């Protein structure tokens, strides 16, 4: 009579038991999308940080006198896509980060300096959280260009980071030093620094004093004109 007990080989190849985990509550407001785009040449990251699978534990270790460079882009144009691909038992992620900015003729040197560079990307979402895309061994490559299919397209520059990554993007709750000064906090999405801005109405009356790192939100049913001094 044949044995019904699994062999040693069967035991090794048996699938790992799966225990479903409940999804956490959705972020308040349920907003999706990204507000800001930052990049860092991969050689400036000295060591890949430890993660718990979805969040980086601790601060990123950067080379001295370096920081993240913010790419100023048009609002609501940042697109992030990571598509899993399985081959020979290994899963990789075809990753793209795209954005568009208006072309004013002054950005040529800065954009050209980034062409073909191996970079890491940090995205800040609507909730103020940061997500790191890439690692020292698995990075994105920057390219830019423009198209002339319409007047609006000719007036803009398309920015693109692409790469085949070994892991999906992870959240980052540590400090993010920026080129030019200031530090962004992944836990709050707020920048720290010094100084303040006074907000006045058209009569010159003081409405508020805004400290560095705070955000001004202007709400009006009519067109608003701003004058910054």
In short:
The protein is mainly β and 229 residues long. It has helices at residues 8-13, 108-114, 151-154; strands spanning 34-41, 45-47, 55-56, 61-62, 69-70, 79-87, 90-102, 118-125, 130-133, 140-145, 156-165, 170-172, 175-177, 183-185, 191-192, 196-200, 206-211. Strands 1, 3, 5, 6, 7, 8, 9, 10, 11 and 12 form a 10-stranded mixed sheet that branches.
Distance N to C terminus: 92 Å
Q: What are the segments in which pLDDT stays under 50 over at least 5 consecutive residues?
A: none
Number of helices: 3
- The percent range for strand residues is 35-45%
Largest sheet: 10 strands, mixed
Fraction of helical residues? under 10%
Average pLDDT taken over every residue: 80
Indicate the radius of gyration in whole angstroms: 23 Å
Structural class: mainly beta
User: Which term fits the overall shape?
Assistant: globular
Total count of strands: 17
Order of helices and strands: HEEEEEEEHEEEHEEEEEEE
């Amino acid at each position: 009579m044949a044995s019904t007990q699994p062999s040693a080989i069967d035991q090794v190849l048996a699938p790992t038991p799966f225990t479903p985990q409940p999804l956490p509550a959705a972020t308040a407001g349920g907003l999706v999308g990204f507000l800001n785009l930052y990049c860092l040449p991969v050689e400036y990251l000295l060591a890949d940080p430890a993660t718990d699978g979805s969040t980086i534990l601790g601060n990123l270790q950067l080379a001295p006198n370096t920081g993240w460079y913010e790419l100023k882009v048009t609002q609501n144009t940042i697109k992030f896509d990571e598509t899993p691909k399985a081959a020979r038992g290994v899963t990789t992620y075809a990753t793209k980060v795209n954005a568009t900015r208006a072309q004013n003729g002054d950005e040529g040197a800065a954009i050209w300096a980034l062409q073909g560079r191996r970079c890491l990307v940090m995205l800040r979402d609507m909730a103020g959280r940061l997500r790191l895309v890439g690692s020292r061994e698995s990075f994105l490559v920057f390219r830019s260009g423009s198209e002339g299919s319409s007047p609006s397209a000719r007036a803009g520059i398309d920015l693109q980071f692409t790469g085949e990554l070994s892991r999906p993007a992870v959240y980052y709750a540590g400090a993010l030093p920026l080129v030019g000064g200031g530090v962004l906090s992944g836990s709050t999405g707020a920048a720290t620094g010094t100084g303040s801005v006074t907000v006045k109405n058209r009569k010159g009356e003081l409405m508020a004093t805004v400290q560095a790192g705070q955000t001004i939100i202007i709400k009006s049913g009519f067109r608003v004109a701003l004058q910054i001094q």
